[in-house]
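We close this part of the discussion by returning to an individual protein. The encoding preserves chain order, so positions in sequence and tokens coincide. The sequence in question and its structure tokens are set out directly beneath this paragraph:

===
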Amino acid sequence: MNWKLKLLLLAILSVPAFSGYPVTSFETEVISGLTDGWLFYFFVVNSFILILTGGRFFANAIAIAALISMPVVFVGATVSYLIFLSGLGYKAGPSVYSAHYLSLCITMLTVIPLALSMVGIVPFQELEHKLLQDRQGVSKLEKFFLMSLRVFNHIVYFVIPNILESVREERCYKKWAQNTLKADTSFKAGGAIKIKTKLSGLIKDMIQLGVEGICASIQYVPLWAVEISQLPNKP
């Protein structure tokens, strides 16, 4: 099965996620917040992804979806619980908001792997190579498409892996530095100071990653723009 047919099947599977039909037609709750329609749709989508993309890609897609879903769902649920404890809202307790977060979790574990699969199936590098090898020239629209392919391939295959590698190395260094500090000093900070320090460090890391990602993504854009503009135009 070629990639175009796979993409078409995944596009058809994505229609219920955007339109709600026929998923919302089956509203019997398996448990609070999870309807049989969404449960069935979850299993169908992920089964098709496994068949069309293979076990390795499917495992990576589910892992990424889980990593994205966990902070959103659990942090949101934690904040809602703190609001309940403070008496500012949710007087009925977790029974009010728990169904929402369960529904959000199953939705994200369905939609995110589907979106990743639709992107992963398209052979962007082959499309770029085909455009560059066309002896008849490149139209203006194809030049825009080629520029988009260059940026996409650069982000997916260079920027993201390099950032992940940097994060891994930085994490290893921080772990080593903390162990060294504990061995060299007997100073013990209070719990509030530790939490504040960790939160401040997390915010700094997120800002650094964001700036690094943006700068690395647009680093070669001027060079590519000049190169692509010099390609022969179609007659």
In short: Residues 65 and 112 are 6 Å apart (CA to CA). The chain has eight helices and two strands. Residues 186-192 have pLDDT under 50 and may be disordered. Strands lie at 29-31, 34-35.
